[in-house]
Design goal:
heterodimer; A: alpha/beta; 2-enoyl-CoA Hydratase, Chain A, domain 1; 8-stranded mixed sheet; 17 strands; 39% helix; 17% strand; B: mainly beta; OB fold (Dihydrolipoamide Acetyltransferase, E2P); 2 domains; 1 helix; 39% strand; elongated
């Protein structure tokens, strides 16, 4: 009977520890519109699958009266579970326990589960809700952050790392999410910044609120630090669950295959792109017209929307899409859009996800602010990422492919495996207007009617070069295809490239233009 | 006491210096810092250009009521016809540009009061 008593005792201890910061702190958390850390985990993983570790860990601080304070689980919950039957590791900072502040034991729990995730090769999800470093622990808490960042880097490209910001995440703490693959934020709840409004006011005299400085909208629309924006925590969890279905468990596997489906009939691929090259259209409809079930899962929808990135499925297998978006800023490439695409391309390459590129762009955005913001360096990231990627790479030129943009968007010259073009594609060094003005400058200025002459020469140039056949005659394009055959060609291209074996020269690592 | 604010027009302030009591301690500040634009709270009623371009067609007049998503104008940028949409329901109070005007990125185009 002694054992029975001990089991009861354990039960009591567990219940006590699972209370977190106590009733009062939980009520306060609820009043801010937030769920508790435990509720969040249970909402995210498959029912009954969560197993917690290190519940009885205690901090060992003996200063500032901390020795009398018992912190449940030291302010963080770690464990493993399943999501749609796939294994995941998870940690959630508990704001109700000492404000989720990070001390050395707290950090040790997080690094423990990160090490587990790496060893077992499973995705890790981190829920961040913390006031920052535990000041009473001094440099030990900084050491904790450092250990986490190091592991974030170690795990990068081996296992998927997902960060969920469900509360404040300030100072050094923001660098852990920044090092991970995907960051989820929720309106009015997530707040991320290096220095808060208070410091900005004293140093620069600028008045700004927390939400305006580092709220969910700011990071989704202006900085691009966040990848997914949600209006509520439950919407955020749905997004995470959907993302998990598209990505593999680790870098030696492929994402789970789904039952193949046909695209929905409402998306008719040859009716989306207008004949007139000056008219914009939403390129996401072209993607929806070719992917299984017209189900396109967009990433970073609100930031640098002139390029569209996201996942879809072709014949049941996950594919990463990169597409110029003519309806936003004419679909130009600029600093932000190149950054956004480059990182996504490297993600897909790291996790064996084939890349499909839809191209329709007038080129790089001209302007002093772009040049001074470093469009050379940022644009180069995209060239680097495409060139380096060894997963199957397929390009479809939908309409315009001019100048540097043509090269950057996964051209044959960067070792695209398949390049297709629609018959209305225009491939040239620059648009017909600009080109005619330069090549026929003399003829135009000397003509009796310069405008008439310009029109004639523009038409001449368009006739001669603004078509896919010049590029096709050199073998830069493999096939000129009718728009309605796009899905057929993509499915076949993916099918024949499943065993692609391309190697980069042996090296420690390349030097991308970060 | 730290006073490092360029917008402060007091004569005794040296650019980039840290002022403690009466002494200015010179510090090296980059040109980029000196040229930086002070953050201003954006006015949601002002519709800004998102790319440099040339106004092709104005589709609304001052005083006209518009609904969110209505086309306010079409302008040419990067060989494309870009639509400017109303950010919310309201009345167009001011039109800042005329047809044929060239404007940079971030220029005010319309003011729409809800």
């Amino acid at each position: 009977m002694e054992n029975q008593k001990k089991v009861e005792e354990l039960q009591k201890k567990l219940e006590e520890a699972q209370q977190g910061g106590g009733k009062q702190a939980i009520a306060k958390q609820k009043s801010m519109g937030k769920l508790t850390a435990r509720e969040r985990i249970l909402l995210l993983v498959d029912e009954g699958s969560f197993h917690e570790y290190d519940l009885f860990v205690e901090h060992d601080v003996r200063d500032f009266g901390m020795q009398d304070k018992k912190l449940a689980g030291d302010g963080v919950i770690i464990g493993t579970g399943t999501l749609y039957g796939s294994p995941i590791a998870i940690y959630a900072q508990d704001f109700t326990v000492a404000g989720g502040s990070l001390g050395s034991m707290h950090a040790r729990k997080i690094t423990k589960i990160m090490d587990y995730a790496l060893r077992m090769r499973m995705p890790i999800i981190g829920i961040n809700d913390s006031g920052g470093a535990r000041i009473q622990e001094g440099v030990n808490s900084l050491a904790g952050y450092g250990e986490i960042f190091f592991r974030n880097t170690l795990n990068s490209g081996v296992i998927p790392q997902i960060s969920v910001i469900l509360g404040p995440c300030a100072g050094g703490a923001v660098y852990s999410p920044a090092l991970t693959d995907f960051v989820f934020v929720v309106e009015n709840i997530s707040k991320m910044f290096i220095t808060g409004p208070e410091v900005i006011r004293t140093v620069l005299g600028e008045e700004i609120s927390m939400e305006e400085l580092g709220g969910a909208r700011v990071h989704s629309e202006i900085t691009g630090n966040a990848h997914f924006f949600a209006r509520s925590e439950s919407e955020c969890f749905e997004q995470i669950k959907k993302l998990i279905t598209f990505i593999p468990w680790h870098n030696q596997r492929k994402a789970l295959a789904f039952e193949p489906r046909e695209p929905k009939a409402e998306y008719v691929v040859d009716k989306i792109v207008p004949d007139d090259p000056t008219q914009p259209y939403d390129v996401r409809n072209v993607i929806r017209a070719v992917v299984d079930g017209s189900d396109f899962f967009e990433i970073q929808e609100l930031w640098a929307a002139n390029i569209v990135i996201g996942f879809g499925r072709l014949n049941g297998d996950t594919v990463g899409f990169v597409a110029n978006q003519p309806v936003v800023m004419a679909g130009v490439l600029d600093c932000d859009s190149a950054d956004k695409a480059a990182r996504f391309i490297r993600y897909c390459d790291a996790f064996n996800i084939p890349l499909v590129t839809f191209e329709d762009l007038p080129g790089y955005l001209p302007g002093v602010d772009q040049e001074h913001a470093g469009v050379i360096r940022h644009g180069a990231k995209m060239l680097y990422a495409y060139s380096e990627a060894t997963v199957p790479k397929i390009t479809v030129i939908l309409r315009k492919a001019y100048g540097g943009g043509y090269i950057a968007m996964n051209s044959r010259h960067l070792r695209a495996d398949f390049v297709f073009a629609w018959p209305n594609a225009e491939i040239a060094v620059m648009g017909p207007e600009g080109a005619a003005n330069i090549i026929f400058k003399k003829e135009i200025t000397e003509a009796e009617n310069p405008d008439e002459m310009r029109k004639q020469k523009v038409a001449e140039y368009r006739e001669k070069f603004a078509n896919p056949y010049v590029a096709a005659s050199k073998g830069y394009i493999d096939s000129v295809i009718a728009p309605k055959d796009t899905r057929k060609f993509l499915l076949h291209a993916i099918q024949v490239s499943v065993n692609k074996n391309a190697q980069m020269p042996s090296r420690k690592h390349g030097i991308p233009p970060f | 006491m730290q006073e490092n604010n360029q917008e402060n027009n007091q004569q005794n302030l040296t650019p980039g210096a840290v002022h403690i009591l009466d002494t200015a301690y010179p510090t090296n500040v980059t040109q980029r810092f000196l040229n930086r634009k002070k953050w201003e709270r954006p006015n949601p009623n002002i519709v800004l250009s998102f790319i440099p371009g040339t106004m092709l067609r104005l589709l609304v007049e001052e005083g006209q009521a518009v609904k969110a998503g209505d086309k306010l104008a079409v302008f040419v940028a990067m060989k494309m016809h870009n639509a400017v949409l109303a950010p919310h329901d309201g009345k167009v109070v001011k039109v800042f540009v005329g047809e044929g005007d060239k404007f940079p990125k971030g220029a005010s185009l319309f003011e729409v009061k809800p």
